[in-house]
C-alpha cells in the first residue's frame, strides 16, 4: 500500500527534476547570445550619454566617465526630430489601420465566399510582395506624379498600404480558412449578413492575428527609408528614418547626437513590440495550421 500511495507523487517530482535539469543549460546558451544581441544597443547608449569632447579625446570605444545629455538636447532641438517623429507616427498609424482593415476584408471574402479565381487572386497578391522594391521605384514615382500626389504624405501612405496588403491578406486568409464553418453557418441561419458576420465573428476571433500583424507592420513602415526618399522631396515632410539621414549629414562628427537621435527614433517601434510581444511571437505561426 505504501508503494501504491507514493508512486503517483514520484512522477511529478521526476518531471520537475527533468524540467529543472534543462533550464540551466538553456540559460547557459541564451545568456551569451542575448548579451551579444544587446551589445550594439548598449554601445550606442553609452555613446549617447557622452559629451563630444570626451568622444574626441578618448575615442568611441571608451566607457563614459560621466553622464552628459548634450547629445539628446542637440538631437531634439537641432534636426526637426520631434516633427519627424510626428510624421512617422501619422504615416505608420494610418497605413497600419488601413492595411489591416482592407486585408481583413479581402481575407474574409477570399476564404468564405466562392469568388471565381480566388486562388489566383491570392497568389497574385502574394507574388506582388516578392518583387524587389528597387525595380518599382520609377513606376511608383511616375504614377504618383501623374496623380498629382508626388511629395505628399498621402502618396507615402498609399504605397505602404499597397505593398503590405498582399502579405497581410495571405496570412489572414490562412487563419480564417481554419475557422470552423459551423460558426458561419449558424450565423447565417440566424439571419446575419456578411457585415454582421465580419463584425461579430471574424474580427473578435482574428484579434490575436491582427495584433501580431500590427506589430510587424508598425516595425516595417516606421523604419522604412527607401519609399520615403523616393516619394518625398520636402525635408519638413520627412519621416524619422529620412530625418536621421539628414541629421547624419549635419552632425557627421557628433556621434553622441546621432546615437541619441537613433535611440529616440527606436522608442515607438520598441514600445509597440513590447505591447504586442505575445501576439508577435505567436503570430509567427499564424495561418500555419487549419
Describe this structure in words.
The structure is a single chain. With 290 residues, this protein is mostly helical. The protein is 76% helix and 0% strand. It contains 15 helices and no strands. The protein is globular.
Mean pLDDT: 82
Beta content:
under 5%
Number of helices: 15
Characterize the overall form.
globular
| Content-based structural category | mainly alpha
Strand runs, count: 0
Order of helices and strands: HHHHHHHHHHHHHHH
How large is the radius of gyration?
Answer: 25 Å
**Distance from first to last alpha carbon:** 47 Å
The low-confidence parts are 1-7
Q: What summary fits the major beta sheet?
A: none
Helical amount: over 70%
Give descriptors for this structure.
globular; 290 residues; mainly alpha
Helices, strands, pairings?
Elements: H1 2-48, H2 52-58, H3 70-78, H4 81-112, H5 118-128, H6 137-146, H7 153-177, H8 181-189, H9 194-205, H10 207-222, H11 226-231, H12 240-250, H13 255-265, H14 267-275, H15 277-282
Helix pairs in contact: 1-13, 3-13, 4-7, 4-10, 4-12, 5-7, 7-10, 10-14, 12-13
Question: What is the compact description of this entry?
Answer:
The protein is mostly helical and 290 residues long. The protein is built from 15 helices and no strands.
Amino acid at each position: 500500500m505504501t508503494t501504491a500511495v507514493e508512486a503517483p507523487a514520484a512522477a511529478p517530482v521526476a518531471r520537475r527534476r527533468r524540467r529543472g535539469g534543462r533550464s540551466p543549460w538553456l540559460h547557459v546558451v541564451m545568456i551569451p547570445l542575448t548579451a551579444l544581441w544587446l551589445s550594439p544597443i548598449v554601445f550606442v547608449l553609452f555613446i549617447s550619454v557622452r559629451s563630444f569632447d570626451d568622444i574626441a579625446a578618448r575615442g568611441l570605444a571608451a566607457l563614459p566617465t560621466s553622464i552628459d545629455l548634450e547629445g539628446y538636447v542637440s538631437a531634439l532641438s537641432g534636426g526637426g526630430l520631434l516633427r519627424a517623429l510626428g510624421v512617422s507616427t501619422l504615416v505608420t498609424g494610418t497605413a497600419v489601420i488601413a492595411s489591416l482593415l482592407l486585408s481583413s476584408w479581402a481575407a474574409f471574402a477570399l476564404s468564405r465566399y466562392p469568388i471565381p479565381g480566388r486562388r489566383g487572386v491570392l497568389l497574385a497578391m502574394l507574388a506582388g510582395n516578392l518583387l524587389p522594391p528597387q525595380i518599382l521605384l520609377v513606376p511608383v514615382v511616375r504614377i504618383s506624379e501623374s496623380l498629382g500626389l508626388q511629395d505628399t504624405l498621402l502618396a507615402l501612405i498609399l504605397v505602404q498600404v499597397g505593398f503590405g496588403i498582399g502579405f497581410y491578406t495571405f496570412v489572414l486568409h490562412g487563419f480564417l480558412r481554419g475557422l470552423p464553418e459551423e460558426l458561419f453557418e449558424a450565423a447565417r441561419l440566424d439571419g446575419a449578413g456578411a457585415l454582421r458576420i465580419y463584425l461579430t465573428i471574424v474580427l473578435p476571433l482574428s484579434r490575436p492575428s491582427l495584433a501580431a500583424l500590427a506589430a510587424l507592420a508598425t516595425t516595417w513602415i516606421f523604419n522604412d527609408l527607401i519609399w520615403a526618399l523616393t516619394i518625398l522631396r520636402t525635408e519638413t515632410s520627412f519621416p524619422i528614418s529620412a530625418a536621421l539621414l539628414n541629421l547624419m549629414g549635419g552632425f557627421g562628427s557628433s556621434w553622441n547626437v546621432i546615437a541619441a537621435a537613433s535611440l529616440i527614433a527606436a522608442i515607438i517601434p520598441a514600445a509597440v513590440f513590447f505591447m504586442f510581444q505575445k501576439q508577435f511571437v505567436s503570430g509567427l505561426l499564424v495561418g500555419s495550421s487549419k
